[in-house]
Write a structure and sequence with these properties.
By secondary structure, this protein is α/β, with parallel strands linked by helices. It has seven helices and six strands; from the N terminus they run βααβαβαβααββα.
Length: 256
């Protein structure tokens, strides 16, 4: 396994569930995953790309089920980036259809499992029927205290930071704050992830070694873990390997 050190309602505050009850000692509480490799998985099997995306949904199910047992309390999944609009229109349509199907088909199980569903990114600009379904699922699970599942939709890290800075600039221009009052903490309050626990570990599948505009601000002190496993083949064992790797690392945050 290869590895390297290497529309905004803010989600609800992170609920600390599972600590001391399950998981790998010293493991991450907030794991974020760049789910990559669906297309290559399909191509190797001489299947259409949509088959890879469907297989990727199964991997999402596996990871959501496995996360609480590994002590993960927040799981952030990079589902659709702001750059993904550049893909062929039929593939974008397929992805949106899969998103809608997933939310509708999984909401009962997610709710029963105590999962709390949230979103980051400009997800409110998606098609109105998708936005409505996303809002229903979020509102239905808002009172749950289990895994906090954060789905990044129409998300880009640079765009997120830009939105936050524009809001702060408006506050300065209106005289509500001074430039000197623009602090790290105040900026973080304007990010999509306001109220969510810091990202401990970022995983990327498929062998690519880059962040691809994902959680650029939040990853400042995250540990990074890369695997050649394609996302549709990602399972409990690979997730555990990443978590155990994290537990062995020493995090100094710039200190000694």
């Amino acid at each position: 396994m290869a590895e390297a050190a290497a529309g905004r309602p803010a989600p609800a505050p992170d609920v600390q569930v599972g600590a001391g009850e399950a998981g790998v000692p010293g493991g991450p509480r907030h794991v974020a995953i760049i789910m990559d490799g669906n297309g290559r998985w399909a191509r190797r099997r001489m299947l259409p790309r949509i088959a890879g995306h469907r297989a990727g949904v199964e991997a999402v199910r596996r990871v959501v089920r496995a996360s609480p047992g590994l002590g993960i309390t927040t799981l952030t999944l990079y589902a659709f980036s702001s750059e993904n609009w550049r893909r062929p229109a039929d593939e974008v349509s397929d992805l949106m259809g899969l998103l809608l199907t997933y939310v509708r088909s999984e909401i009962d199980q997610l709710d029963e499992a105590g999962v709390r569903l949230n979103y980051i990114g400009d997800w409110r600009s998606l098609a109105s029927d998708i936005v409505l379904e996303l809002e229903r699922a979020r509102d239905r699970t808002a009172g749950n205290s289990g895994l906090n599942l954060v789905v990044a939709l129409n998300y880009g890290g640079q765009q997120e930071i830009l939105r936050a800075m524009r809001r702060l600039a408006e506050d300065v221009a209106a005289g509500r704050i001074t430039p000197q009052e623009v602090t790290v903490e105040r900026l973080e309050e304007q990010l999509d992830t306001a109220g969510v626990a810091p990202v401990d570990l970022i995983i990327r599948t498929s062998g690519e070694i880059r962040l691809s505009n994902f959680l650029l601000w939040q990853s400042a002190y995250s540990e990074l873990w890369f695997t050649p496993v394609l996302w549709p083949d990602f399972d409990d064992a690979v997730l555990r390997e990443a978590v155990e790797s994290f537990a062995l690392r020493e995090r100094r945050f710039g200190g000694l």
